[in-house]
Every structure is written in structure tokens, then in C-alpha cells.
Amino acid sequence: MGADAVEPDVVVSKDGVLVVRHENEISGTTDVADHPEFADRRTTKTIDGAELTGWFTEDFTWDEIATLRCRERLPKVRASSATFDGEQPVLRLRDVLDLARAASLEYGRELGVVVEIKHATYFSSLGWDIADLVARELEAAGWAHGELPLTIEAFESTVLRRVKERGIRGTYIYLLEAAGRPFDLVARDGRAAMTYRQTTAPAGLDALVGVVDGISVDKRMILAPDKLGRLTGPTRVVADAHERGLRVFTWTCRPENNFLIGQFRASRDPAAFGDWESEWGVIRDAGVDGVFVDHPDLGVAFFGGAA
């Protein structure tokens, strides 16, 4: 469809395999709950300060995870996607790297991979150095030294530093939520930890220069909706970052009402498309360097080479 890259989120299995799942809790994205042999592994854990109940990748070997099949995470919004439930296996990071390389050859253009590292501090508490796991996997797959376009991103800046220190060539992007604090800094500094919003202020951006290549922000940081969901942006975050030589990406541009800010919703049907062109237009005109989308065809058509 013309996308520049694919973005696998990466978590860790019990035996240290890098698994591609949105989260390490997998009841919403696999059929694990339908496997009676795994019923006793349902448990409650605290992940990055939030209590979750379900099944977690770190309690399964890769061979066990490979018996599961994928499910759409938001079936009420993505009903067409949910028609594929039960058909596709879970992938490893290595699988995605190999698929992207094969697709680059097939289509005659370089397809990049954006590796999002999830819950690095949490996995460290279990004894896994996810930075080392990622670096070794990239080396083994032939993606570590600029062979194909590689981006490493995370909501924790400390894991980005550790991967970079291992000599992995790529673009390093710091993911920023619209609210809250990164868990690695909370674990280290407690209430003194810098918030994500403080990071996007001029002084916070100054501190990122030379550490990362750019930031990827929740789109609300650009749109700045008020309490009624009305647009007050675009904010200065893109311009301020560009003034410091930092690239800026945003996530996630989706057309359904469920994901649009209130001003651009066309109806109460969460799955119906709203006035996504108007919302995306604000983001485009703010000057972002790229966007993350769930609909590559719409993204490429609207944003062109920035999708």
C-alpha cells in the first residue's frame, strides 16, 4: 500500500524470545483464554504501576505462544479485522524482520521496521535485559548496521540509550504520552520524575538533543483538545522540536469516530468514519515528519511520503 515501514511492538517470552504483541498481557490479542491447558496461568500482576489480570508472555515459552492464534483487540470498532480471528499465528521480532526484508525485495523498495520496545524496566525486574535481546536479534537478522531502514522507539529513554550503546545503527525515537510519567524515571526518581509534558517543553527538548533523534507524540499533544473535545491546537511541540534538530512523529491517525477528538466525530457510531480528513489536516499542517496509521492506504494517500 506504499507505507514506509511496519511497527512491531516487542515483549519477552519466558525463554527470552522477542514476541510481537501490543502488550505482554495477551488475553485481548490472542485466543489464550480458550486453551484449557493454560487456564492455571491466568494471574494478576502490576505492570508499570497498573494492576492487570490475564495471561502474560513472560509466563509462556515461545513454543507455547506459537500454539496461540491472533485476535483483533478492538472487535466492536474493527469488525472486518475481527473476521480473521483464529487464522494467524503470533510472530516473533525475527519473523517481522525477515518479512520486511523479503517485501523490500519483492516490491523493489526499502521497507523499514520500527521496533517499539515495551516495558523495559518491568522486564529488567524479571532478569531480562531487553536492550541486549533486541541488539542481538538485530545483529543475527542483519538489521544492526544500516542494512535496511531501522527505527528503535520506546516510552522509556533509558532503554533507548542502552540499545544505542550496543552500536545498533538506526533512528532513535522517544515515545511521549499526552499525560503521565515514563516508568523508568518513576522507578528511579519517584515523584521527582519528569512528566511527558515537561519533556515537550523547551527545556525538556533541549535535554534530548544528542540523546535521541526525535520524538513521537500522542496526537493530542498536537491537537490539544479542550474538555469538550474541541480543537485548540496545533501546539508548538512540532516547531519547538524542529528548532532543536529533532524529528517529530505522531500516533495514531485513525479515521473511526472512536479515535477522533470530539469536534471531528460524525456520529455516535464508534466504528463509523468521522471527519478524519479535518483532524489529519491539522496534524499534517503542523509539519510532522511522519505518522503512524492503521489504514496504510488512507495514510499514504493523505500524507504522501510522510506516512
SSE arrangement:
Layout: E1 5-6, E2 9-12, E3 18-20, E4 43-47, E5 50-54, H1 62-65, H2 79-82, E6 91-92, H3 93-107, E7 112-117, H4 120-125, H5 130-141, E8 150-154, H6 157-165, E9 171-176, H7 183-189, H8 196-200, H9 202-208, E10 214-218, H10 220-223, H11 237-243, E11 247-253, H12 276-285, E12 290-293, H13 296-303
Parallel strand pairs: 1-7, 2-7, 7-8, 8-9, 9-10, 10-11, 11-12
Antiparallel strand pairs: 2-3, 3-6, 4-5
Helix pairs in contact: 5-6
The overall strand count is: 12
- The average pLDDT value, as a whole number, equals 97
| Fraction of helical residues | 25-40%
What share of the residues does DSSP label as strand, in percent? 15-25%
Count of discrete alpha- or pi-helical segments spanning 4 or more residues: 13
Main β-sheet, in a few words?
10 strands, mixed
Order of H and E elements: EEEEEHHEHEHHEHEHHHEHHEHEH
How far do the termini sit from each other?
11 Å
Q: In angstroms, what is the radius of gyration?
A: 19 Å
Unreliable stretches (pLDDT < 50, length at least 5) are: none
| Large-scale geometry | globular
Could you say which structural class the secondary elements and strand pairing correspond to? alpha/beta
